[in-house]
Here is the input.
Amino acid sequence: MTFDQVSYELDSFLKIKLTQFINSHDSQKIALFKPYYIHFAHSHLIDIFSILHSNLNDLFEFLNFKNGANGGHYNAEDSRQLLDIIEQIRILQAKLTNQYSFKVDEYYMEIINRCKKFLSLRGGSPIPAGFPKIDIIEEKAIFLKINSTEIENPDNSRKMTIDLIGGGSYANVFRYKDPYYKMKFAIKRALDNLREDELERFRNEFNDLKQLDSPFIIKAYTYNEEKNEYTMEFADHTIQKFIRNNNNSLTFESRRKLIIQLLNAFEYIHSKGLLHRDVSYQNILIKKYEDGNYFIKVSDFGLVKRPESNLTKQGTEIKGAINDYSDLDRVGFENYEKRHETYAISKVIYFILTGRETNYHKERNEPLKNFILKAIGDKENRFNSIAEMREVLIKDVFPYIRNAEKNNGATLI
Here is the structure.
């Protein structure tokens, strides 16, 4: 069979599968996870993985809801849907080879294997006692390319395998442990199909990170011109994953320290005349140190706005997961300003304090409610600087929480 025949057969197979998934599974959130799978470089496969990721997360969330202290009962329709998705993943893995071969995230694969032991096609499924609550993966891909690569260590004595841990529309991120330095590092590698202006922005991201010097900003080390990649500091978690995993055990004092670090990071960034423009729950990282301390690490400076830059042209597509689209749609992404940045930062602060990403109007803590509604309200009345945000938090929000905990043990979660 010729290359063209193989390619045509694969395209036909994926087109049929995509149509099948759109008809049989919820495809309303198809765009939600697409950025994680762009590096597969096939439009049908990108959509398929996004649909499967979204629906698998929904089914796992419902499984968590139905799973009690002594197990529970998983509904019949949901059991059938989960079994179908598991089978479709198996079919895709058997069919896709070479550059499209993939594996399932190790943690999700473990959950899938445990689910297969009790799921039933009829009458629902008894959830066994002791079945764990599932940590839902939303901040990274769960379908991973089977494509390890190698780099040389500084003395060129041996090569090291690096693992793909994430990706987006501009670059993939790899992780490796350097045997020379005995440390973990990350490598951010630009995609091969970037336009020249996108590649220039990628290089500028490295230059910005290289020049910025703050313990709360991810460090960049060296740039490889041949591969268009750079080595940077490795951080353990996104703030989203960290809070979700620890929300029931984090003290207010721990949350307060993270927020102060976040404020320090952006106060420093703004002091350099820069605006990040892509503040999100995925781009704020957490690094854990051996002594048990955690530190905020702001990352992903690919959309930074700098005063002298001409890369952001009029009509540029608006990006940033939690940006103020309602206003930026009107004024244009090229007119992004500090009041847009404080809008997004306030959402991260609220998430750190409460573990919640929405329902701000229902917040029962009045000072916190006033803070978040001011920050995301009419632009004319928002915080104009990090200093203004810090003042309200320290003067009103933090004391209220401390007093509530002291008087009646109340918490924000």
